[in-house]
């Protein structure tokens, strides 16, 4: 075997650097795709465009909203969005929200990290809601999302696990200053596949949904999930 010359060493170092830069670029592109995916979900949810929302999820997705329990798979996701939400707080038909309905979901404050290997990722977002029925009622809502993502064989990112934690859900005229937020619960007529994964009290309670990431400066993991399948 011929000894490695200085030129060979330089070439190998440059190739290694190129490989590292390509990985960084790919991770940045994946992160941006996930940002777009999540924001698109929010815009579609705004107008109850269920046919647009469902393709954003994997076939084996798991969705948990407040205390409704866990809905597993595309068929149950359809039930959750179209039947439970679409005939409840987001009254809709095949064309989206009905006249006089408001269901704004502003999804902000996103943090996304792509896992090693580039096939899965985690994200945390905050959602602020305005829900109303014209001339009848208006509601404020807010809470964080913990989301897991998966990259398919087609190269597209989708949501594999979505968990929305309710911070508050209160009447507009009272707001969170006066009204206690209901915890919500399982709907017997549209049952989930599993019950709620965690029991907690919304505001005025101060429950902290576990973070998927450690403190970026101190490395502290006291408020994080350590399990591999964390959302």
Topology, element by element:
Layout: H1 6-46, H2 50-53, E1 57-65, E2 70-72, H3 73-85, E3 92-93, E4 96-97, E5 101-114, E6 120-133, E7 137-151, E8 157-164, E9 168-171, H4 175-178
Parallel strand pairs: 1-8
Antiparallel strand pairs: 1-2, 3-4, 5-6, 6-7, 7-8, 7-9
CATH class: Alpha Beta
The major beta sheet can be summarized as: 7 strands, mixed
Overall domain count: 1
State the order of secondary-structure elements, H for helix, E for strand.
Answer: HHEEHEEEEEEEH
Fraction of helical residues: 25-40%
Architecture per CATH nomenclature, i.e. the level-2 architecture = Roll
* CA-CA gap between termini: 50 Å
What are the salient characteristics of this protein?
231 residues, elongated, Nuclear Transport Factor 2, Chain: A, alpha+beta, two-stranded antiparallel sheet, 4 helices, 7-stranded mixed sheet, 9 strands
Describe the structure.
A hairpin with a 2-residue loop joins strand 3 and strand 4. The protein has 4 helices and 9 strands; from the N terminus they run ααββαβββββββα. The radius of gyration is 21 Å and the shape is elongated. The strands form 2 sheets. Strands 1, 2, 5, 6, 7, 8 and 9 form a 7-stranded mixed sheet that branches. It has a two-stranded antiparallel sheet with strand order 3-4. By secondary structure, it is of the alpha+beta class. The protein has a single domain (6-178), classed as Nuclear Transport Factor 2, Chain: A (Roll), CATH 3.10.450.50.
């Amino acid at each position: 075997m011929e000894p490695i010359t200085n030129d060979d060493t330089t070439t190998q170092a440059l190739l290694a650097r190129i490989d590292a830069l390509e990985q960084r670029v790919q991770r940045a592109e994946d992160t941006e795709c996930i940002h777009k995916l999540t924001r698109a979900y929010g815009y579609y949810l705004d107008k109850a465009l269920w046919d647009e929302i469902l393709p954003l999820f994997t076939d084996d997705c798991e969705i948990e909203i407040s205390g409704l329990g866990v809905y597993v798979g595309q068929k149950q996701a359809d039930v959750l969005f179209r039947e439970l939400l679409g005939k409840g707080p987001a009254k809709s038909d095949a064309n989206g929200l009905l006249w006089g309905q408001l269901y704004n979901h502003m999804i902000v404050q996103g943090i996304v990290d792509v896992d090693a290997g580039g096939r899965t990722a985690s994200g945390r977002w905050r959602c602020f809601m305005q829900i109303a029925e014209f001339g009848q009622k208006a509601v404020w809502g807010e809470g964080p999302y913990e989301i897991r993502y998966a990259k398919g064989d087609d190269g597209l990112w989708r949501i594999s696990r979505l968990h929305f934690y309710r911070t508050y859900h209160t009447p507009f005229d009272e707001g969170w200053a006066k009204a206690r937020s209901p915890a919500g619960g399982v709907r017997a007529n549209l049952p989930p596949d599993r019950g709620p994964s965690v029991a907690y009290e919304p505001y005025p309670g101060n429950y902290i949904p576990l973070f998927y990431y450690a403190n970026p400066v101190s490395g502290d993991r006291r408020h994080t999930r350590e399990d591999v399948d964390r959302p």
